[in-house]
Known about the structure:
By secondary structure, the protein is an alpha+beta fold. The protein is 32% helix and 27% strand. Helix 1 crosses helix 2 and helix 2 runs antiparallel to helix 4. The two termini are 24 Å apart. Magnesium ion binds next to helix 2.
Amino acid sequence: DVVNFNQFFNRIIDRFELSKSQNVTFHRILPDVPYYVEIDTDKLTQVIDNIISNALKYSPDGGNIRFGIVGKDQELKVMISDDGMGIPSENVERIFDRFYRVDRARARSMGGTGLGLAIAREMIEAHGGSIWAESEEGLGTTVFFTLNIEQDEEGEWD
Ligand code: ATP
Ligand code: MG
């Protein structure tokens, strides 16, 4: 489907904001101009759900989660950042490996299988985009992914 990504993203963030039980504040840094992308909405929902669930799982009480979108040329960059415990730099790239979890003891108590981000990478790459993370231990984590912006063929004439 071709969807207005801003609207699609906002709806997912709304769902988490309404149902979250933690004391975590959401901040949306979303542009007013709509960006259209051609995506499998079920798959992208699964990707974003996992990234937001991770951010919530690792957020401290009173933490903040920031949601951003930046459009440049043909590419849309989406960012989800938290100010949680972070990931040691030598392990950041490994979080996209199947079954990889940073701290086994802590991960066990958090539940989950360690598959979420591996699946997310597969799905984003199937859409022609890329996904990566930047993190600093003790400061937080940002997950980025890109999608191709759909050029409207019709042209928008006012
Ligand atoms: P699942 O998603 O299958 O329920 P999971 O959340 O453990 O399980 P992934 O989403 O693939 O698996 O994440 C892999 C690991 O990366 C996590 O176990 C955690 O150690 C680390 N991680 C992911 N996101 C964050 C984050 N925002 N802050 C800190 N660590 C993170
Ligand atoms: Mg996960």
